Amino acid sequence: MSRDTASAERVSRYMRGRRAEWLAAAMMMSRGYRLLALRERTPVGELDLVVKRGRRVAFVEVKQRATRDAALFAVTPRNRQRVVAASDHWLARYAPRFDGVRGYDVVVVVAGPGVAFGRRRFALPRVYYLKDAFLHSYS
User: Fold this and answer.
1) What is the pTM (predicted TM-score) of this model?
2) Distance CA 107, CA 105 (A)
3) What is d(CA 27, CA 41) in angstroms, rounded to the nearest whole number?
């Protein structure tokens, strides 16, 4: 694989990831969540989405893969540890007196069925939301 091909593939993956994050943000807002942060960088890692509804602040990991199962398997224990550590940092910085409920959710974006539009066919994405997809002990 040439350098140009590798670079083009990297850009393509980046753009698919950004699109998945925007779809996830739109879906969370349609469910009544307020978007607090998108692609928030912390010293220990990046948070894809931080959303809030009522007293619950959710740290959302967004995965886009070919299948739902592949996306769920991509949320590894190491990935979960990074999200928890980043959420601790985010709360310490932006909400030091936070006394609400925090959750760790996952949004999965997969290619859906094709839809005809004129002579072209487009694959509409399917977006799945898993509330409290993983838990964290606060001891």
Assistant:
1) 0.86
2) 7
3) 22
